[in-house]
Amino acid sequence: MDSDLLIRNCYFLSMNVKFNIKLAEKYHSPSQIARVLTEDWAKRESYCPRCGEKIFEYENNRPVADFYCAKCKEDYELKSKNGNSGKKINGGAYSTMIERLNDKNNPNFFFLNYSSRDWEVKNFIVIPKHFFVPGIIEKRKPLSLSAKRANWVGCNILMSGIPESGKIFYIKDGDVLTREKVLNQWQNTLFLRDVDGNESKGWLLDIMQCVDRLGTKDFTLAEMYVFEDVLSKKYPRNNFIKDKIRQQLQVLRDKGYLEFLGRGKYRLV
Fold first, then answer.
1. Domain range spanning residue 93?
2. In this structure, what are the phi and psi dihedrals at residue 197, rounded to the nearest 5 degrees?
3. Is residue 255, in this structure, part of any structural domain at all?
4. Which residues contact 91 (CB under 8 A, 6 or more apart)?
5. Is residue 128 part of a domain?
6. Is residue 184 part of a domain?
7. Domain-terminating residue out of 178, 210, 226
8. Hey, which of 95, 99, 200, 258 would disulfide with 252, CB 3.0 to 4.6 Å?
9. What does the pLDDT read at residue 61?
């Protein structure tokens, strides 16, 4: 390993979970304080999960993303929350989010969960953009006519709709994961970018989630058939659910996400 790479690895392994609270001294609004501290932390401590290089902050008020990687050209939008992230995350305007799903230049998402009691990061996750399909976007009710933004329609990102392999942790429950683990997990699902159409990608993501729900690395085709009823309700026009399950398992096998062990047995790589 060359000396520059060794230095970078040591730097990233020593990721500091503490915010620089001195930056908040000139602010009074809790929302402004949170924004300044979280953006500063992400800029200082994070790195691109695709190539491992430092990320940079875009100029203020850029509508599409907050950070970018100069080497591999990935964009990232940061969303932060005090306390537990929960099952839903505010995704902003619904129409904008749906437009992004159909745009190859849409950003990846950083989700930062922090504690305002001690001003430190508890969880920091990146979700690659290839995991975003309409099925994980929940449309909220329009704001009332008396609201400042009357009839504005927001959305939630449903974290429960994202397979575990799509939730790449830098920091989990206060513990910093290795840079190597982050980069490897990113590469493991990059094949999803080449899948055309939200429905085709949605099928793969659903099968990946079914594998997650089995709770074991080794499983059988018969165990996957347990999800036939669930998938039938989601895809009522498909009368060949078992065939589709087998097909999607084969795709995941060909992409190196699963290993076929023979006789209807699979292993999560």
1. 3-178
2. 90, 135
3. yes
4. 79, 97, 137, 154, 155, 156, 157
5. yes
6. no
7. 178
8. 258
9. 62
Contacts of 68 (CB under 8 A, 6+ apart): 55, 56, 58, 74, 75, 76
Three-class secondary structure of residue 231 per DSSP: helix
Query: Please, which residues bridge with residue 111 across strands?
Result: 79, 125
Q: Are residues 45 and 99 in the same domain?
A: yes
User: What single letter denotes the amino acid at residue 7?
Assistant: I
Q: What is the pLDDT of residue 99?
A: 86
Q: How many CA atoms lie within 13 A of 140 on its CB side?
A: 19
Structure confidence at residue 62 (pLDDT): 66
Mean pLDDT of the chain: 91
Residues of the chain with pLDDT under 50: 1-12
Provide the β-strand partners of residue 112: 80, 124
Residues 56, 160 within the same domain? yes
We report the CATH number of the domain holding residue 260 as: 1.10.10.10
The token duo for 158 is 């449903």
Q: The tokens of 144 are what? A: 């009332």
Three-class SS of residue 19? coil
Q: Which residues pair with 47 in a beta bridge?
A: 54
170 lies in the same domain as 229: no
Q: Which of 86, 191, 80, 72 is nearest to 131 (CA)?
A: 191
Q: What is the CATH number of the domain that holds 113?
A: 3.40.210.30
Total number of domains constituting the chain: 2
Do the domain assignments include residue 71?
yes
The whole-angstrom separation of Cα 106 and Cα 102 is 8
Neighbours of 96 (CB within 10 A): 13
Domain C-terminal end among 111, 146, 178 = 178
The pLDDT, as a whole number, for residue 63 is 63
